[in-house]
Amino acid sequence: MKVVILDDAHAVADYGADLFREQLRKSPASVFGLATGSTPLLLYKELIKSNRKGELSFAEVTSFNLDEYMGLAPDHPQSYRHFMNREFFEHVDIDPANTHVPPGDADNPLTACGEYEDKIRAAGGIDIQLLGIGRNGHIGFNEPTSCLVSRTRVKTLTVETIEDNARFFSEDEFQPQLSITMGIGTIMEARLVVLLATGESKAAAIKAMVEGPVSAWCPASALQMHPSTVVIVDEAAASKLTNPDFFKHIEAQNQALLARL
Ligand code: F6R
User: Fold this and answer.
1) Minimum CA distance residue for ligand 1 atom 12
2) Which residue, 5, 15, 151, 201, shows the most beta carbons closer than 10 Å to its own?
3) Residue 230, φ and ψ in degrees, nearest 5
4) Torsion of CA 230, 140, 127, 256, to 10 degrees
5) In this structure, is the dihedral angle defined by the CA atoms of residues 101, 217, 188 and 133, taken in order, positive or negative?
């Protein structure tokens, strides 16, 4: 697990966006794993800017989102499909037919989960997976106690997550308590994982994820077993790490090495 500590949320987004740009340069027909939430918004803005300037194209990209609320149709303003259209897909040249979000309104959610896995497999697997992290260490909607080799499935949200996300729903609006989420096993098969976290509220989860133990109590800690994960955090999210200077030293060494190549 590579940990990169940067000054602020803008630097985090830039660094993350660069990894996506690099992936697209290597392979214009890449398969992206995408996330919703507040954290990736700046990164999406960066990618939209590059697309508008003609620096990169998403025309051949296929995407799979991590999760969706169960019970919300794609056109519901709080659905993750709606979020992705509004915040990213509508602003770039990606083919909407190649964008996938788990179907929150599926007649049979159990079958839909297997079909989602089949589609990821048929696309050749995920090249680069974007993640945020919950305050409780969740990735996707894999809440604490999730099986560390789980596949796409229906998950019950914790009270903490429901409260964290209540800000997006008005008081009298139906807020789902169930989700469909890629499993931790599904995420672990991505070739490169890019996890972003900003702000003090994520500091405890980042410490648990990076320093372990690997435990279902912190689902993100499974990424310690992933061969190619980059964790990009701002100073506030890194503030509970035992030795942040060590990670800064490693990154400085890496950059110096790259400059020599
Ligand atoms: C979103 C997702 C979640 C979020 C996490 C952090 O698709 O899967 O795991 O990444 O809840 O959310 P924010 O970024 O809003 O703090």
Assistant:
1) 37
2) 5
3) -115, 120
4) -10
5) positive
Name the active-site residue from 65, 98, 136, 142.
Answer: 136
Residues with C-beta less than 6 Å from any ligand 1 atom: 35-39, 66-67, 132-134, 138-141
Contact 135, 202 (CB under 8 A): yes
- Catalytic, 136? Answer yes
Report CA 162 to chain centroid distance, whole Å: 18
Cis peptide before 103 (omega within 30 of 0): no
Which residues, in sequence order, are bridge partners of residue 139? 142
% residues pLDDT > 90 (the chain)? 96
DSSP 237: T
CA separation (Å) from 108 to 2, 14, 67, 134, 197?
39, 39, 16, 27, 34
Contacts of 256 (CB under 8 A, 6+ apart): none
Give me ligand 1 centre to Cα 161, in Å.
9
- pTM exceeding 0.85: yes
* Per-residue pLDDT tens over the stretch 181-235: 999 999 999 999 999 999 999 999 999 999 999 999 999 999 999 999 999 999 9
User: DSSP class of residue 85?
Assistant: H
Check 68, 127, 138, 234 and give the catalytic one. Answer: 138
> In one letter, which amino acid is 198?
T
CB 169 within 8 A of CB 175: yes
Distance CA 176, CA 157 (A): 9
Residues of the chain whose pLDDT is less than 50?
none
Query: Look-up: residue for tokens 């964290």?
Result: 164
